[in-house]
Design brief:
249 residues; alpha/beta; TIM Barrel; binds 2-phosphoglycolic acid
């Protein structure tokens, strides 16, 4: 059984004060829940204060990005070891905003995945097709190609030790969600690609998940959780989505 996981990607939002407040509220209300894991991804500059606010709460912390380099003259970059040092357990790798806005190739994403695991972090590999690719019937080819690029560098077993988030690019931040059937179909394809070693790999769906559509998405057999952007910025709404995951799994 894959671990049910609910992840909140805060992207580039919030002040030190608002981030700490949101974390404290989540931490206070999450404490009793043992049947799913919650993780939040604050902006890197707030990781430390959010980690302090979450001590003892059971809510894990992650980073939105890392560099593939270990150390050295890489001005502005943050290494996996530095994130691990701050208390991060997870790190997002290859989010579509990184791929499209910051030019991250499949190769770079694979290097980041390897660097994350080498430092003991659990990478959440984000994959997904654009609207045009979906319309051209290329969804599964794109998604499996993105995963294959990481398998080539990291090996299948190591990819299966991570988490994969299927996030159709056309559904991110648009209010448009993949239907539960569309999402399930891709998740099933990913599960098949991973084969037996992937039986326990958590496969998350992301892209405009909210409290109205969470239940149906999480009710699909190969959807083990969610990567939530906009709807994770408000504690009650995010906790409600998490509750729906617990009820479905
Ligand atoms: P969204 O973002 O929920 O706001 O669509 C999801 C993501 O980018 O991870």
């Amino acid at each position: 059984m894959a671990n049910p996981l609910i992840a909140g990607n805060w992207k580039m939002h919030g002040t030190a004060e608002s981030a700490t407040q949101l974390a404290s509220q989540l931490g206070r209300q999450w404490m009793a829940k043992g049947s799913a894991e919650m993780v939040v991804f604050p902006p890197a500059v707030h990781i430390s204060s959010v980690a302090s606010a979450l001590v003892g709460s059971g809510v894990a912390i992650g980073a939105q990005n890392l560099t593939q380099h270990h150390n050295g003259a890489f001005t502005g970059e943050i290494s996996a070891a530095m994130l691990s040092d701050l208390g991060c357990k997870y790190v997002l790798v290859g989010h579509s905003e990184r791929r499209t806005l910051f030019g991250e190739s499949n190769g770079t994403v694979a290097e980041k995945f390897v660097a994350a695991q080498a430092a003991g972090l659990i990478p959440i590999l984000c994959v997904g097709e654009t609207l045009q690719q979906r319309q051209q019937g290329q969804t599964m080819a794109v998604v499996s190609g993105q995963i294959s690029a990481v398998i080539e560098q990291a090996g299948l077993d190591r990819v299966c030790d991570g988490v994969i988030a299927y996030e159709p690019v056309w559904a991110i931040g648009t209010g448009e969600t993949a239907s539960p059937q569309q999402a399930q179909q891709v998740h099933k394809g990913i599960r098949a690609q991973l084969g037996a070693p992937g039986i326990n790999t958590s496969l998350l769906y992301g892209g405009s998940v909210n409290s109205d559509n969470a239940s149906q998405l999480f009710g699909q057999p190969d959807i083990d959780g969610g990567l939530v952007g906009g709807a994770s910025l408000e504690a009650d709404g995010f906790l409600n989505i998490a509750q729906q995951l617990i009820e479905q799994k």
